[in-house]
């Protein structure tokens, strides 16, 4: 008898495979999630538009625009006056490609930047530490080309500084690396529009963030709502068959439920007869 009771007790603690589902297990129906999102799509869209408008305002009125100017230089490990310049070997090209990293570092060095600031007339406004991170380089793979980018809050300042670096760098590099040369292939051009921030990109990001955030809020709020809203949900959650429903006459009187309007009309007819 005692063994049977232990077995029965153990069986009672086991989760029920059929019938009512375990209340501790949260089941998420993707169909319900999509229906919840669609039912609240108007609110989601309004919040997304609000985020986009706020992002637009911040981008235009708060974030300071920046402008970029650049030039591209060709790196060679031979000077134009060197002998046998017409018989350029593959080893020379490989050596020049390796030199591009050295050239890029030199063009961002303190002496070049400080001399360029003086030449551009910007030494009174900027110091090396202020502009060092705004001067960047890019080396095209398997080529002898080095691109230099200058980023400031003014299109004119970016252009003047990039132009000054392009004029100073070749002579400075030639004085350090004997037998090497650098020629500017693409000269700096003054920017006609801001480099950053991108209004279109920021507004799109704000819209997407607002939409995703509101969708998460709507779905989580629906999942946290444990109330049974209709007969179909009652059957799905508890596995019970519905044999009848009690109409809500207050909602029927307000016309909120189409199925309950019948009861409201029937009640009115009885009242008219009286």
Structure keywords:
274 residues; alpha+beta; Alpha-Beta Plaits; 4-stranded antiparallel beta sheet; 4 strands; elongated; disordered N terminus
Task: Write a structural description.
Helix content is 55%, strand content 11%. Among the domains are: 120 residues, Alpha-Beta Plaits (2-Layer Sandwich), CATH 3.30.70.1130; 31 residues, no CATH class. It is elongated and about 95 Å long. It is α+β, with helices and mostly antiparallel strands and 274 residues long. The protein has a 4-stranded antiparallel β-sheet.
Secondary-structure blueprint:
Layout: H1 2-13, H2 30-39, H3 41-61, E1 67-76, H4 90-107, H5 110-120, H6 128-131, E2 135-139, E3 145-152, H7 155-176, E4 181-186, H8 199-224, H9 231-238, H10 249-254, H11 261-273
Antiparallel strand pairs: 1-3, 1-4, 2-3
Low-pLDDT windows of residues: 1-20, 80-88, 259-269
In CATH, the architecture of one domain is 2-Layer Sandwich
Question: What's the CATH class of one domain, please?
Answer: Alpha Beta
Q: Radius of gyration, rounded?
A: 37 Å
Instruction: Please tally the helical runs, counting DSSP H or I stretches of 4 or more residues.
Output: 11
Structural class: alpha+beta
**Shape label:** elongated
Order of helices and strands: HHHEHHHEEHEHHHH
Name the CATH superfamily assignment of one domain.
EIF_2_alpha
Largest sheet: 4 strands, antiparallel
Helix content: 55-70%
Percentage of residues in strands: 5-15%
